[in-house]
Each structure stands twice: as structure tokens, then as C-alpha cells.
Amino acid sequence: MTDVQNTAPEQGAEQAWPLWEVFVRSSRGLSHVHAGSVHAPDATMALRNARDLYTRRNEGTSVWVVPAEAITASDPDSKGGFFESPSGKVYRHATYYKQSEGVPHL
Fold first, then answer.
1. Which 8-state DSSP code applies to residue 6?
2. What does 61-105 look like in DSSP terms, one character per residue?
């Protein structure tokens, strides 16, 4: 069996295959988890390549492929400003509230 990631045209070729991100769900009820990437000319081939590469030992029940260019991600270097709560909204955190006396099971 050939390595799927090596089947793409060489770097700099006029029509290089796009990159697809692969997500695999190992069993029903679980979330899909990012497994890796494949190059393929279209979604159907990307799905087949992903199946062959990431579920060889019957590890998955579902596979998703997404064009890498369709994914928008936050900048890890901007973590502080992006994920911090706006000032004045401390009520969004459980530590803001006081535990009531005499209320069981809290």
C-alpha cells in the first residue's frame, strides 16, 4: 500500500492537491477527534484516503474531511485577549456566587 500523503503532486506543481483535515469518531456517542491531514483532489477521494490512512484497524465508525482552507482558527499568541472575560462580567464565573447556608447538596 502506498503512503497517501506522498501521492500528491510535487511541491510547486501547477495543480497541487488541496489539504484536507481529517476527523474520526471511534464509536457512537463520542465526539469526532482530529486525526491528521491528507491531500486529495476532491472530497470523495479525501474521504477514501482518510479511511485508508486513519482507520486501517477498524478504529472508526465515522470520518469527516474538511478542506483546510475552510477552517478559521484563533491565534494562539492572542490567547489572553481572546479568551479573557470582559471586565464587569464576573457573574459568569461560579466563584462569584456565595454558597447558601443550610441548603443541602450544594
1. G
2. SEEEEEEGGG-----GGGHHHHHSPPTT-GGGSGGGSPPPTT-TT
Q: Under a CB-based contact definition with an 8 Å cutoff, are residues 106 and 99 in contact?
A: yes
| Cell numbers describing residue 33 | 477527534
Could you report the per-residue pLDDT of 53-106, keeping only the tens digit for each? 999 887 788 999 999 999 998 888 877 777 776 666 777 777 777 777 877 776
- State the pTM of this model: 0.63
How far apart, in whole angstroms, are the C-alpha atoms of residue 36 and residue 28? 20
Burial class of residue 58, CB neighbours in 10 A (0-12, 13-18, 19+) = exposed
User: Which domains are delineated in the chain?
Assistant: 4-8+15-96 (3.10.20.520)
pLDDT, tens digit, 9 for 90 and up, residues 9-21: 555 555 799 999 9
